[in-house]
Amino acid sequence: MALLNQKHNIYIQEGALYRKRLRATAQRLIQKPQHTYIFSPPGLGKTYTIEDEFEKNSTNHVSIKGNTSLWGFIVDMAMIVATAKQNNLKDFIVFVDDCDTLLTSTDSVNTLKIMLADNLLTYRKSLGAQYAQLTEDQQICIDMFKDDDRNGIEIPLDDITIVWCSNYKLADQKMSANVKSETKAQKYMHEEALRRRMRVMDYDVEGDIKWGWIADCVLNESPPSMINATAQERDEILYWMHSNWDNLKEHNISFAEKLYDEMVTDPSGYSTIWELDYLV
Asked: Strands 61-64 and 92-97, how do they pair?
């Protein structure tokens, strides 16, 4: 008899609805490209889901991986746009994966807000030492967008759609209304303006709904390292996670994969290892 009961199944169904919305967002991007920002807590497979849909549909896209600063983002975009121009590529998606650092400063958020409003990524500072540290290929691409009469660069974003995946939630009206710090209030104001310039999908999943999201993935999409797990093994892992939710060291899909790895490695002693090593 399955350990997961009717109550658990309700949470899984609710989690599945959220994940279905995420899939639908990716499919909509393919059918009708639109600047889009996707937020959820970390470890729920945002990147995998979006890229999986892009790959299934042979979507023309370029990925920027890893947390990057504003300058790092500008260099990446210069390389992408320069390459696209050289190869006459148009109508493609730039997928920015893990952009939390990019959004830490008011200046960065304001630059991105203006970028989406003008369809132009503008950096009006002397390049100086930053430029000197670039590779030769990077410098060549940056040079394509320099303005001889002014400091900085301008990178046109014609025919480019930007999709962001982030663990950072952009401020909304409710967050702005409750902020006390004047500095943070100013940053939130720019974040709200950034929101208005693109489609924003917030997945504020916590508690049982977050577990339901994880459970739906484990049961119905088989994370790569769990492809050989039996239904009974998946059931036991998810039941244990839900029963110990408040004391788990992590709340993400990879945590379920770690539990399964312990099952495979030590079939007779995994439950003891779970208790000793995976709870706070």
From this structure: parallel
Domain boundaries, the chain: 25-202, 222-277
Is pTM beyond 0.90? Reply is: yes
Report whether CATH 3.30.1050 matches the domain 25-202. Answer: no
pLDDT digits (tens, 9 = 90+) for 10-46: 999 999 999 999 999 999 999 999 999 999 999 999 9
Which residues are paired to 155 by β-bridges?
121
Tell me: the pLDDT tens digits for 66-108?
A: 778 899 999 999 999 999 999 999 899 999 998 888 998 999 9
How far is CA 48 from its chain centroid?
9
249 touches 279 (CB < 8 A): yes
Q: In this structure, what token pair is assigned to residue 227?
A: 């492809």
